[in-house]
Amino acid sequence: MSKLSHIDSNGKARMVDVSAKKETNRLAVAKGAIYMAPETLKLIEDGGVPKGDVFSVARLAGIMSAKKTADLIPLCHPLPLHDVDVDLAADHNKGCVEITASASLYGRTGVEMEALTAVSVTALTIYDMCKAVDKHMKIGDIRLTYKSGGKSGTFEAD
């Protein structure tokens, strides 16, 4: 089957065969945020969360999850990532922690799901570490913001 699809000729789900695709440098960047009370954001920055250093633990969780995306998302290819980065920034005006994750490799398939997974798990980790002090936190705005490499070319969100 030459068409890239998760559905085979019998209508059953399958992993896409990417063996004929050209290897290229591939990069994806995703962003998201976790919204919280101002006191919670200050507590994180001051290192006062009882479970420890929120940013360090959340960053590590995001990186580790990108490496395990194929175990979490059905039909994703297990990928030998070359680089994963997670950046966290407190935004007091918006009342949130902004999360940016990037994933890259040289290969036959993109790394969008790895970057998106890293953002999601980073946000969930922050939630888990802070839920005892703020049960009203909201995770949102998770989206792909940039992708390069591959046949479809470069994507950049507005």
TrEMBL record:
UniProt: substrate binding residues: L75, C76, H77, M113, E114
Pathway connected to this protein: Cofactor biosynthesis; molybdopterin biosynthesis
Record-annotated active site: D128
Gene Ontology MF term list: cyclic pyranopterin monophosphate synthase activity
SUPFAM superfamilies given in the database record: Molybdenum cofactor biosynthesis protein C, MoaC
InterPro entries xref list: MoaC, MoaC_bact/euk, MoaC_sf, MoCo_biosynth_MoaA/MoaC, Mopterin_CF_biosynth-C_dom
Reaction(s) this enzyme catalyzes, per UniProt: (8S)-3',8-cyclo-7,8-dihydroguanosine 5'-triphosphate = cyclic pyranopterin phosphate + diphosphate
UniProt function note: Catalyzes the conversion of (8S)-3',8-cyclo-7,8-dihydroguanosine 5'-triphosphate to cyclic pyranopterin monophosphate (cPMP).
Protein name as it appears in the record: Cyclic pyranopterin monophosphate synthase
Species this protein is from: Emcibacter nanhaiensis
